[in-house]
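User: Could you write out the 3D structure of this protein bound to manganese (II) ion? I've included everything you need below.
Assistant: Certainly. Input first, then the structure.
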Amino acid sequence: MISISELKTVLATPQKIVITTHHKPDGDAMGSSLGLYAYLIQKGHHVTVITPTDYPDFLHWLPNNSNVIIYTEAEEQAVQLVNDAQLIFCCDFNTLNRINELGEHIRNAPGLKLMIDHHLEPEDFDDYRHWNINACAAAQLVYDFIVNELNDGGLINKDVATCLYTGIMTDSGSFRFPSATSTVYRIAADLIDLGAEHWRIHQLVYDNASENRLRFLGHCLSNKLDILREFNTAIITVTAEELKAYNIATGDTEGIVNYALSINGIKLAAFIIERTDKVKLSLRSTGDFPANEICKKYFNGGGHRNAAGGASDKNLMDTVAQFKSILPEYKSQLLQ
Ligand code: 5GP
Ligand code: MN
């Protein structure tokens, strides 16, 4: 590990920098990465954001989005940039398997690796770590890193503020999860003062659905919602055929699981979806129920206590059956 003063010395002269974030980036992944990008370019660094995969259209308005390189669409260029980088920032993830093939390239790259993250159980691959599981978003940690570690709060301009506000807003469920502490509200207020147009950001992220997405949501809620009252659990299951029929794109399924959790009395919600290569699970829970434990123990995944994910090599129906078979083990916690 290197110290903050060593890092400050490195950052005092222009560096070649790569910023990367997790597979299928969400608002926090892109907000923290592009917020850090908008800060670093002001210091004369040569910076590239590389995502392992594509990400939802509703994040494409973010400042400097047009400079992002998507690994799956430009592998050679991405690998070259990773190998040439003197610094590699890893935002919003902490195990290299979260970034697919890009992970091994980063593990083997000669540059310093810096983790800025808020997930449990970080893997030991980094040279510098700004990590706190109590942070509501990686974007909150980027803010803290710039303001309190690097003493560079003066460089939080409108672009940085806009990106960081987006990350904090999306990962805190629009400032409603327990992780949205008074400190988070103070940071949000500061970001608004520094140029983040909160009303516009909210509109661009949440009131920007395609017609397909809304009709698909209606289909999921009317036809695909299975409520297991005996376990206070709700499950929405989606087949590959349905995804095709509604022409569902990356990001269109995001947030649907939260509707299942919004039902009175429901403590655990699962969105189980048949992707081309595997079946993916998204879990959400309320209170102390550990959704991440189920993902880690049974579905090769993880995440936060109330928002977690994983995958299965079984087919869709077998995965749903497996998920249901796990519920009795958690019955007392689900009925508490
Ligand atoms: P989502 O359900 O929105 O895909 O993911 C919610 C959270 O669960 C993410 O922020 C991430 O922390 C975690 N997560 C989702 N999928 C995986 C996975 O496959 N592996 C791990 N370790 N965590 C995941
Ligand atoms: Mn996050």
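The two ends are 43 Å apart (CA to CA).
User: Perfect, thank you.
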